């Protein structure tokens, strides 16, 4: 039997536990600071047993999945005693900092990042189908065990992800700065306008869609923004320059320029959708 410990039974951790139900030859355990969450996860059958302290159970775990913030994950890895050679992975949205600061030669650390989530947090919002059809990013290094890489891929497929992308920590952070973090910055910025308070009755789907991810966990996302500040700042600069470009065309009543701009961006969006459909 393989013992799997999920650290942090929030939205992602709770969903991971539920999605792993029935994984062959495995027993899933949970670690959380909230007794009520542990009790609920046990009652749901998401975990076989839950604990609030890691020290007693951690050395018995073959696989540890860290579903906490990046700093908390690094601190956990660097200060806890693991089973020698245990596979340790995470679900954090930044990888450069993780690979730079993880200092534990007793484990086999593989970076992970499921591209899935909801606008609400907590175990009570977790669901076993959260990862169904989602992409999953794996950040590996040469020293990783081939067996561990395969096991993690098996887990990822089992929880419902349909595409696994293997990449470097640098490429991960550059791409996520654009595909995820910039989107949250833009959504939050759109909500930094008092006109939103009286938009009811004046909005359709575009306002809802463009601001959807502004309903977020401020503490977690502030940490992600700062830990990936170099790549994210570059994407904000690119976005700001593009925004200024179309602003000037609007101010100058440059209809032809606006049409050209919208044609180029529309075609790029169509190419993205076409590639997505092919996959």
Residue runs with pLDDT of under 50 for 5 or more positions: none
Number of domains: 2
Determine the number of helices (DSSP H or I, runs of at least 4 residues).
10
SS content category: alpha/beta
At the fold tier of CATH, the topology name of the largest domain is Rossmann fold
- The CATH homologous superfamily of the largest domain is called NAD(P)-binding Rossmann-like Domain
Order of helices and strands: EHEHEEHEHEEHEHHHHH
Tell me about the largest β-sheet. Answer: 8 strands, mixed
Strand content: 15-25%
Strand runs, count: 8
Organism: Congzhengia minquanensis
GO molecular function, one term: NAD+ binding
Keywords: Oxidoreductase
Domain Prephenate/arogenate dehydrogenase: 2-279
Gist?
Belongs to the prephenate/arogenate dehydrogenase family. This protein has helices at residues 11-19, 35-44, 70-79, 96-101, 146-158, 169-190, 205-211, 218-227, 229-251, 255-278, and strands at 2-7, 26-31, 49-51, 63-66, 86-90, 107-115, 135-139, 163-167.
